[in-house]
Amino acid sequence: MKRAKWKGVYIKPKNSENTFDNSVEISRSSSIIPKFIGQTLNVHTGKNFKEIVVTKEMLGHKFGEFVKTRVEFAFKKKKKKK
Question: Based on CB atoms within 10 Å of each CB, which residue in 9, 16, 24, 61 is the most buried?
Fold first, then answer.
């Protein structure tokens, strides 16, 4: 569901600083605005932080769309019996 237009975009930094420099941690639910283009931001994956470089194509999306929160699973191959 989209956010109401009268509310504006949602931006919530993870830490208490409101300055958006290279060391800012930002939540996955925040929207990407033109102010972030070209910056490197730390996005929380649930366990650790991942650096994301914001490009022009990301505008209007949320940070959570670009950060994986789950580990990829692969079945282990079984050894052949002799």
Answer: 24
Q: Mind listing the pLDDT tens digit for each residue in 32-65?
A: 999 889 999 999 888 888 999 999 999 989 999 9
List the chain domain ranges.
8-66
CATH number of the 8-66 domain: 3.30.860.10
Beta strand 49-53 with 25-26 is unpaired
Tokens of 69: 């929160």
Query: How much is the CA Rg of the chain, to the nearest whole Å?
Result: 17
What pTM does this model have? 0.69
